[in-house]
Amino acid sequence: MDDTAHSQDLLLFLASTAHDMKNSISVLSGTLERLLVDASPRDDAAYPQMAQMLYQTRRLNDNLMQLLALYKRVGTLDYPFDVQPIEAGQLFEQVVALGRVLLDARGIALEVEAQPDLIWHLDEDLIVGVVSHAVNNAVHYTRDRIRLSLCEADGLLEIRVEDNGTGYPQALLEAGAAGLSDTASGIDFRTNSAGLGLYFSREVARMHRHRGRNGSVRLENGGALGGGCFILSLP
To answer: pLDDT tens digits for 35-62?
Structure first.
């Protein structure tokens, strides 16, 4: 077996392992959600710890999902990129449903604002994954509020995830403005992560193309709540 074939076999093995790990973490996450729904924040001393465990399992699940999608994107497997007309309200319903238990457990208020009757062509699974990851990231850094908004701006679909925390560090804002390579090289994504979430989000955005325009991701501070702003734009 030549080196190329050996490398491809190793990548496939690692992807299969990551897929198994993701399935196990999904089961654990579902169990924690059910326990939190049945528990009381006032009466159950373990409630805060379970909420933190749910946040961490969601984070791990996000990272594994992103690794698998990126592997399929650049590896030997064809990624099933499926662009379909999706109603904005339907998109946000999925994101809210995925985050509801964690948000309630952490005592975080979620504000949702979507332009009514707006329909856009996009890959629903990928975009839900990107926005859900941004919400999960905001959960860790907000004080108590997250705002999720969607509208059409300059011919683009603009999705914003904002929080009322302390905002993104200046180094990350500068790296994001400089380009993808700086972020992918290991600069923290608001903590000690390797920037996988931001890298994945930008790759997904770039996969969406229409009439010579590509999707994009940018980070800002301020916005409606005064904290960090994750902004996804799709043509």
So the answer is: 888 877 777 778 888 888 887 888 787 7
